[in-house]
Design goal:
CATH class of the largest domain: Alpha Beta
Radius of gyration: 26 Å
CATH architecture of the largest domain: 3-Layer(aba) Sandwich
Structural class: alpha/beta
Oligomer: single chain
Number of strands: 18
CATH topology of the largest domain: Rossmann fold
Shape: globular
Distance between the termini: 31 Å
Strand content: 5-15%
Number of helices: 20
Strand order of the largest sheet: 3-4-2-5-6-1-7
Mean pLDDT: 86
Number of domains: 4
Bound molecules: adenosine monophosphate
């Protein structure tokens, strides 16, 4: 995948409605896989794409499918497009992505996966849906029951094909593909291309456009001295985790990369709330505003600049100590490009990457390209942060001692010494200094941040959401996150959410997983069996006296 020719979404041939949706989402430019895949898919060609989660591959196939379906009317039980995915978590995620991108187009999508009642899926299929996103086992069940008919299918997408094979779906895939018209368009996406995938491609794709990650492109030696660390952390916990990492690292100036404008604004707000001097930088800002931010950054008047790739292009600041990837960049080339901003002039720079456990493959691709190791670290605990702050205070006191000139204060100590032990006096004075320099915002941080252990993301079972092992031990429960459009600004505390869930939805609160309360929204983890009931109940309830929107967490924050 080459990044060479940059094109806009409009240049790729997407229509007005889809373009408006992408702008509203804050997407600034297509990712490499999107640049390469959208045109052939719009032309109706087959496609073989080597792409891992986190490259933007969902939009790469979703946008052309939506455009191709256009205004065609949906027919009962006969979808136009079928997307096959390995897990139910992915079925929900991909279906949510279709929903998001299809706003204003009138195209409908239905996820069908094992574990969910057939009845609900049958009603959805009967009603007529343009696109079905399914796990192979459940798709086959519906085919056998004749509640799904693939004879009108125009396109099939095999998403994460290698994972589907690893989970033993090879035979199911063959049966499903054989039930589709020969004239269909087929797109196959896979993070790896072992011979088994090549063989499926050989048999089921017609003269496909191929998008492959080139092997061994020698970028060795182009990376300056940079300490590279990654934290595996789930999306809902990222901001809190980043806060701690920044507290620990205390960067002189950090450039933090986000994917979208919305993400930039949200993160900049939240970090400002932690007491940092933060500026946002994205393509939605005027040149004048951007110049103002850059001037402040050069003049050391900011601690953190939160930016999109587009806006940060060409930034070159000497005292930039840290580059932070709030998400793994969509291509290894982009990673190399970003971290090249730090470690200038022979100084050691630091690159920090927050990766969703599902994006581990992207990290591997980067290591492969750069021939450098990225160390996987654990998110610092509040204790680590406290210890680090004490170190800073200690160093400041030490510096004062060495510099001398404190004689004028001895009289204070001597007077107090008549009453107190000198050690206690010194300790109280240090405490005063320490508390004065602590700043605000640190109290946000007593929350439990689960982190994923190395390798935990490899554990996945067919039709089970993939979950890492939490620090507190294995948690085999099947948890789903819901989004509640109210947070600390509305005065919401964890107890309010637990209370509402227990009382309004009549659900046992012991099943509740992690709760995150941000300024303008909250995320609650719940056993998937309770989710529908809770969403329904909370929608008609009030929290802190107000009605709030509640839905499954799509990871897209408005
Ligand atoms: P995926 O690889 O499909 O799982 O996508 C990873 C994430 O990137 C999702 O959260 C998308 O919303 C986001 N995304 C996809 N395309 C773009 C884009 N062109 N610009 C910014 N974010 C994007």
């Amino acid at each position: 995948m080459k990044e060479g020719v940059k094109r806009t979404f409009a240049e790729l041939g997407l229509g007005k409605e889809l373009l408006a949706g992408l702008t509203a989402l804050g997407y600034e430019e297509p990712t490499p896989i999107q640049t390469a895949a959208i045109v052939p898919l719009l032309e109706g060609r087959d496609l073989l794409g080597q792409a891992a989660t986190g490259t933007g591959k969902t939009a790469a196939f979703a946008l052309p499918l939506l455009q191709r379906i256009g205004k065609t009317k949906a027919v009962a039980n006969k979808p136009f497009a079928l997307v096959l995915v390995p897990t139910r978590e992915l079925a929900v995620q991909v279906s949510d992505a279709f929903h998001t991108y299809s706003k204003g187009t009138g195209v409908s999508v239905l996820p069908i996966y094992g574990g969910q009642e057939f009845r609900r899926q049958i009603i959805g299929l009967d009603r007529g849906t343009h696109i079905v996103v399914a796990t192979p086992g459940r798709a086959l069940d519906h085919l056998r029951r004749e509640t799904l008919d693939l004879s009108a299918l125009k396109s099939v997408v095999l998403d994460e094909a290698d994972e589907m094979l690893d989970m033993g779906f090879a035979e199911d895939l063959e049966l499903i593909l054989n039930a589709t018209p020969k004239s269909r368009q087929t797109a196959l996406f896979s993070a790896t291309l072992p011979p088994r995938i090549a063989s499926i491609a050989e048999r089921h794709l017609k003269d496909p456009a191929r998008i492959l990650i080139p092997r061994d492109k020698g970028t060795r030696g182009t990376i300056p001295k940079v300490r590279q660390t990654a934290y595996l952390i789930s999306r809902a916990q990222k901001i809190a985790a980043l806060g701690r990492v920044l507290d620990l690292e205390s960067p002189t100036l950090a450039l933090i990369f986000c994917r979208t404008r919305l993400e930039v604004d949200e993160l900049a707000d939240r970090l400002a709330g932690r007491g940092y001097r933060v500026e946002a930088l994205h393509g939605g800002m005027s040149q004048q505003e951007r110049d103002r931010v850059m001037k402040k950054a050069r003049g050391a008047m900011v601690d953190l600049v939160v930016a999109t790739d587009v806006a940060a292009r060409g930034i070159d600041i000497d005292h930039l100590t840290h580059v932070v990837n709030f998400n793994v960049p969509m291509s290894p080339e982009s990673y190399v490009h970003r971290i090249g901003r730090t470690g200038r002039a022979g100084r050691e720079g630091v690159a920090i990457t927050l990766a969703d456990p599902r994006e581990h493959r992207l990290l591997r691709n980067i290591e492969h390209l750069t021939k450098q190791k990225i160390e996987i670290a654990t998110v610092p605990t509040p204790m680590d942060v406290k210890a680090r702050r004490l170190d800073v205070t200690k160093a400041a006191v030490r510096e004062k001692l060495l510099a001398g000139g404190s004689d004028g204060f001895r009289v204070v100590v001597e007077t107090l010494a008549a009453e107190f032990d000198p050690m206690d006096i010194a300790a109280a004075a240090v405490r005063l200094v320490h508390e004065a320099s602590e700043g605000e915002g640190s109290n946000e941080d007593d929350m439990h941040i689960p982190t994923f252990e190395k390798g935990a993301h490899r554990q996945s079972a067919p039709e089970q959401p993939r979950r890492g092992q939490w620090n507190r031990g294995p948690d085999p429960r099947d948890l789903v996150r819901i989004y509640i459009a109210g947070g600390s600004r509305m005065g919401i505390r964890p107890a309010d959410l637990v209370g509402a869930i227990a009382n309004e939805a009549n659900v046992n609160p012991r099943g509740i997983g992690d709760i995150e309360i941000a300024e303008s929204f909250s995320i609650v983890e719940l056993p998937s069996a309770d989710v529908d009931q809770v969403i329904k109940a909370l929608r008609s309830a009030t929290i802190r006296g107000r009605k709030v929107k509640v839905h499954l967490d799509r990871g897209i924050r408005k």
